Amino acid sequence: MKTNRLKIGEFSRLCRVTVRTLRHYEEIDLLVPEIVDRDTGYRYYSVDQFQKMQAILSLKGMGFSLEEIRDLYEDDTHVPSIEALEEKIRVCEEELRQLNARKAQLKAMMASQKKLKKMEKITIESLPAIIVASHRTTIPSFDDLGRLCYEVIGPEMARLGCECPEPGYCYTIEHGGYKPKDIDIEYCERVTAKGKDSAIIKFKDVPEVPTAVCMKVYGPYDRLYQNYIDLFAWMEKEGWKVADAPRAVYVDGVWNQEDPEKWLTIIQVPAEKA
Q1: Are 5-80 and 122-273 equal in CATH topology?
Q2: Contact at 8 Å (CB) between 204 and 165?
Q3: Domain boundary assignment for the chain
Q4: Architecture of domain 122-273
Q5: How many helices (H) and strands (E) does the chain have?
Q6: CA–CA gap between residue 93 and residue 6 (Å, rounded)
Q7: What is the pLDDT of residues 216-232, one digit of tens each?
Q8: Residue 146's closest CA among 266, 262, 254, 258?
Q9: pTM of this prediction?
Q10: Distance from first CA to last CA of the chain, Å, rounded?
């Protein structure tokens, strides 16, 4: 039997699919083992079934669903009709149209980003008084900030019924100064009103900042350290001194931009003339 039939693991390796895939195909009656041993539960496939698996994978690669492929074999046609092929071609053309439209949008965004980079990155602004929901902890690195927001801070703010005004405004303060690892970080997000403090979230009033020196930073967070240095050097040269803890304001990041080069962080440094 071993020369003509293969166990499920052997067959999966031959076909280059997972055992999980084969079990799913069996569940939906698309590709059923030739023999199932009642005593051991072992499943055996014939070498002849390899050709059917290759046909399934080929049709799947052309956009046919597993249900559509199963129907082909139930009808003993094994080959899609002209009408079915024409429909898949139409779907492909629509997907190409959408991809071309997405490509045009990406190019327009890239042109916009390049234009922004050419603009002056440092501005002097005032920051209004706000109420924030705050969470302070130590994270291994900035790579853990997203997980902290999604898994800890966000769910707790939702549980407490926090309302965040538009446009959203969230920032972090690195207590003890900026460093790449083991960061003592405080995450603050603007809310419309104070709620009841919990073990995770504390509410507080943040006073107005009459003057803040601000710098736009594009790219991944490991570039922030050098930008802090550059900004402090500029402030010293222009006669400014730090008046309070700097803020890193997250405008665009992993939550809305897959490309780290498009992440936008604004460093806001409360300042006064030296």
Answers
A1: no
A2: no
A3: 5-80, 81-117, 122-273
A4: Alpha-Beta Barrel (3.20)
A5: 8, 12
A6: 41
A7: 999 888 788 888 888 99
A8: 254
A9: 0.53
A10: 89
